[in-house]
Amino acid sequence: MRVRELHVISNGQSELEHFARVAALIHPYVTAFHLREKTSQALELWKGVMALRTSGVPLSKVIINDRVDVACASGVGGVQLNYQSLEVWAVRNAFANMRIGRSVHDVQEAEQMSYQGADYLIYGHIFPTDSKPGQLARGTKALEEVVKRVRVPVIAIGGIKPENVQQIMVTGAAGIAVLSGITAADNPLQSAKNYRDALDI
């Protein structure tokens, strides 16, 4: 049975050194760490990657959002693209061995990005979340439709807590992505264990 994926995403608000310290504690339970720092410059992202490496986090688990140049130069495991990023096919042609994720928001976009060569998709938000105030959650039925229509793994994101993980997994999703549920928890290690336990049921 394929190991269900747990992705942990930085929130763009805490210092990357703090994220690295948390990652060092929890990485045995985590599949991938995303540096999603929309306001950070290349050098800041590089320093964040180096902080993760120094903390003992394998670079193979690190994913840089959007910045293909930093991902390539730092030797991390992959890059996460969005609608403002380079096209998946362009990154795939230039970096054949890089793991490429793409954030998607509907079935049509998911099919297109899968066709272009994305290795996995992140889809959401599934449940209501404070990070998307006033925006309607897409729900598990829409997630299930995306999973059925593409051949690559789909990672669910948005408002996911340990107690609703199984609602996600019955859709056939490959795993979940979490932001504040772990990094902002009073006990990030215990929180990561709780998510991993919920995934492994």
From TrEMBL:
Its domain of life? Bacteria
Query: Transport among the record's keywords?
Result: no
The family database entries (InterPro entries) matched by this protein are listed as: Aldolase_TIM (IPR013785), ThiamineP_synth_sf (IPR036206), ThiamineP_synth_TenI (IPR022998)
Pathway(s) per entry: Cofactor biosynthesis; thiamine diphosphate biosynthesis
Indicate the segments forming the Thiamine phosphate synthase/TenI domain, all copies. 8-182
The record's section on CDD domains has:
TMP_TenI (cd00564)
One GO BP on record is: thiamine biosynthetic process
GO terms under cellular component: cytoplasm
Entry keywords, A to Z: Thiamine biosynthesis
Q: Which GO terms describe its molecular function?
A: thiamine-phosphate diphosphorylase activity
Q: PANTHER family this protein is in?
A: THIAMINE-PHOSPHATE PYROPHOSPHORYLASE (PTHR20857), THIAZOLE TAUTOMERASE (PTHR20857:SF22)
Protein name as annotated = Transcriptional regulator
